[in-house]
Amino acid sequence: MNKEVDNPAGSIPRHVAIIMDGNGRWAAQNGRPRLAGHRAGVKSARQIVEACAEAQVEILTLFAFSSENWQRPAEEVNALMRLFIEVLQREVATLHDNGIRLRFIGARENLPTILQKRIEDAENKTAANTRMTLMLAVAFGGRWDITQATRQIANKVSTGELDVEDIDEAMVSRHLSLATFDDPDLLIRTGGEKRVSNFLLWNLAYSEIHFSDTLWPAFDSTDLATAFEFFSQRQRRFGQLDNQKEASAD
Ligand code: FPP
Known about the structure:
Layout (H helix, E strand, L loop, with lengths): L2 H4 L8 E5 L3 H7 L4 H21 L4 E8 L7 H24 L2 E6 L7 H14 L5 E9 L1 H18 L9 H7 L10 E4 L18 E4 L9 H12 L9 H8 L1
Parallel strand pairs: 1-2, 1-5, 2-4, 3-4, 5-6
Helix pairs in contact: 2-3, 3-4, 4-5, 6-7
Farnesyl diphosphate binds next to helix 2, helix 3, strand 2 and helix 4.
């Protein structure tokens, strides 16, 4: 079916990014330990991955662990690392069978060695899949990303590979973690807070932002449909006027 004709407003975002917030509060509301909230969060993630693939989303980026999350109590950090290792062990084959390519962004050198290995194996195994890319942001922060890009560019200038005059927005973009992937069209944040919390700072410049009060473990395909409905009603102008956008879309 022709997507343009079927859906002229472009109601399905091509790249969806999600700040999955509210696992801890969900656990507290249900009288359970925080880890139970994170486990329930994994179930939600699985459901949303399926729903996005069915809706023909091309890239789904999930913020699983931020640079700031290292400051949580060691017990919770360790439990989350164990959970990530377990989830990769359990889910990669299913993701692969469903044509999903897994990619990771973040300071992976700070992760436990075994998790780094699982990440590398998952990326290699699923590298040729084309149905949807599932991008997991782990040990990721927007400021970290801009800093590491700056460092790479500065190194290239110091070795003479680049001239200062070569540095423009496209060059900075290429050195960020999303590199050649398009920027998110839609950012969803669950759990009621209205912040970007050091997620993809550069890449969210023109994203539509949908805040949902639903706590992440309770977020389901109906909530996702609400977010897509919000997106379909937005008019994206990228800083231009309406008539300019129409002209440049021709
Ligand atoms: C957000 O809730 C939870 C996290 C950032 C931790 C990790 C996320 C998951 C386990 C879900 C999906 C995992 C994968 C691997 C896709 P919070 O702890 O900040 O909740 P609170 O704000 O209610 O305390």
